[in-house]
């Protein structure tokens, strides 16, 4: 069900494939969206702070992450990140996501990303020359036995450093 924001649940007879089990109120939709926002923020924080084992726990076992020229399972992303140079700093700055569909078991959203990456100086601070890429995250989430998890992410670059 798409959260209409009206506070009034749609009539299942007017929406094909809907039944009473899929209907819920705005407060439940907001709670689900809040859980998904936490996942988005933790994902960025864990990458930026090299907490890769915790990163894996944010994803479903079948999670697929895609960006131009790459498509991999979440576990493969974590293994790749573990091999990244330790003298590079990264910072993911993410906007408030715009949610599309939110149901009891699945949700999706789009958020904007400004990504910075820079070599670190001797004092451990990145030497910044500006944003590396501006992109959109197209995220999918699924409720699992362990709670809400990221089930897929497509990164769509919009601007990049020449």
Fold and architecture overview:
The chain is an alpha+beta fold. It contains three helices and seven strands; from the N terminus they run ααββαβββββ. Strands 1, 2, 3, 4, 5, 6 and 7 form a seven-stranded mixed beta sheet that branches.
- Number of DSSP helices? 3
Uncertain spans, ≥5 residues at pLDDT below 50? Answer: 1-21
Whole-number tally of structural domains: 1
Kindly report how far apart the N and C termini lie.
41 Å
CATH-derived topology: Nuclear Transport Factor 2, Chain: A
Number of beta strands: 7
Q: Proportion of β residues?
A: 35-45%
The main β sheet shows up as: 7 strands, mixed
Task: Work out the radius of gyration.
Answer: 18 Å
Helical/strand content category: alpha+beta
Tell me the overall shape. globular
H/E series = HHEEHEEEEE
CATH class call:
Alpha Beta
| CATH architectural arrangement | Roll
Average pLDDT taken over every residue: 87
The helix fraction, in percent, is 10-25%
